[in-house]
Amino acid sequence: MAQLGWVAGPITLLLFAAITFYTCGLLSDCYRVGDPATGKRNYTYTDAVKSYLGGWHVWFCGFCQYVNMFGTGIGYTITASISAAAINKSNCYHWRGHGTDCSQNTSAYIIGFGVLQALFCQLPNFHQLWWLSIIAAVMSFSYAAIAVGLSLAQTIMDPLGRTTLTGTVVGVDVDATQKVWLTFQALGNVAFAYSYAIILIEIQDTLRSPPPENATMRRATAAGISTTTGFYLLCGCLGYSAFGNAAPGNILTGFGFYEPYWLVDVANACIVVHLVGGFQVFCQPLRRLHPGRPRLAQDLRALQDQVLIRPRRSALVYTLGLIPYGYGGIMIYYSRFGLSEVQLYLKIL
């Protein structure tokens, strides 16, 4: 919000929400070929591309989907490690003072996150993750509510910065190059906030019918997008009003708030738990990369895949997350806009 300002910020959020809702509705209709109740199922995104477009589109859209999932996984890994480190930093600032050097090395947290995900990788499919999804959703509401509450309190008591209609001011807050880069980064953050659409068909495959899966998915999408967009607007607008153009990228890990430190710790812990569940949901489709084999070979391959291959794929994501954040940030940036392009490409065609 600080990069876009009071005008472009809310408009961008609402525009992405509207586009995502519309295109998700189109994509949900691609789950079955023909009749929405009895037609042939497309179990994955690439299955849908193969059914409706075929040819080189399958490779193109599949490549974009997997690049996006890797980028999302890297983003989740980095964000979770920063939030975990912020808990220690918050305690350090509370007990030693705000001027103390409380910097943390996030590499250990990334490795710990990776070990935890390697254990969760043994769960076979989306159906086994229902409880993790519920916990992640509760955590998401919790830290969003805390951020909104703290921002509202700061806005009422003592706003810390100046706000403008166009966001950060060139020559005052940033130079021209920084303004351009940070604006595109803000747009990437908004696109990333609506990234679940890339695994919508995989999620839809877990639904029962009747009623037709596409009807259920449309209702769920409407409820989900309206709720999350409401929280995005509250967090963005209240955070901007509280801290102005100097607002940190993340008001919970960027230490817009130091006190109450225990509440900041709770919010960051909720972020970590949410991202543990979110990582598993987004990386589930990466497990379906092997072609079919005879029954015995399938069983042996399934065991090898569960014990060895899945953790290896996840380990690649964690390793990329260990790369200095500038490079990781660039990868996430490209994956976000790759998502937006491919999300529109299949569904409108």
From TrEMBL:
Q: Which organism is it from?
A: Oryza sativa subsp. japonica (Rice)
Provide one Gene Ontology cellular component.
Answer: plasma membrane
UniProt protein name: Amino acid permease
The reply to whether Glycoprotein figures as a keyword in the UniProt entry is no
* Membrane spanning stretches: 6-27, 129-153, 180-201, 222-242, 262-283, 315-334
- Name the domain of life: Eukaryota
**Which is an annotated Pfam family here?**
Aa_trans
Q: Which gene encodes it?
A: P0458E11.27-1
One annotated GO biological process: amino acid transport
Lipid bilayer topology: Multi-pass membrane protein
Q: Where in the cell is it found?
A: Cell membrane
Q: Does the keyword Transmembrane apply?
A: yes
Keywords of the record, alphabetical order, are:
Amino-acid transport, Membrane, Transmembrane, Transmembrane helix, Transport
Which PANTHER family did the record assign? OS05G0424000 PROTEIN-RELATED (PTHR48017)
Limits of the Amino acid transporter transmembrane domain: 1-288
